[in-house]
Amino acid sequence: MWTGLSPSEARSLLVQKDKAKKDKRMSITEAVSTLVKDGYNLGIGGFVNSRQPVATVHEIIRQGKKDLLLSFHSAGLAVEYLAGAMALDQQQFSIKRLEFAYWGIELFGLSSMLRFLSENGMVELEDWSNFNMSARFKAAAMGLPFLPCRSPLGSDVPRANRSKIIDCPFTGEPIALLPACHPHVALIHVQEADIYGNCRIGGPLFTCPEIALAAAHTIVTCERIIPHEEMIQEPSRINIPFFAVDAVVEIPLGAYPGNCHSRYYFDENHIKEFRNAVEAFRKGNPIPLQRYYDQYIYGVTDSDGMLEQIPYRQLKHIQQIELREAVLMQETGDDKQGDGKNAH
Amino acid sequence: MISKGMERMHTNFTPQEMIVVAGSRVLENNKVIFAGTGLPMVAITLAQFTHAPGIIPVFEAGAVGPTLDRGLPLSVGCSRTTSKASYLQGLNTAFELTQRGFCDFGFIGGAEIDPYGNLNSTMMGQFPEEYQKPQLRLPGSGGASDMAASCERTIIIMAHERRRFVEKLQYLTSPGYLDGSEGARRRAGLVGQGPYRVITTKALLGFDEKTHRMKLIATMPGETVESVQQNTGFELLVDEKVYEFAPPTVEELRLIREEIDPRGYFIKRK
Question: Is the residue at A25 inside a domain?
Answer without folding.
Answer: yes
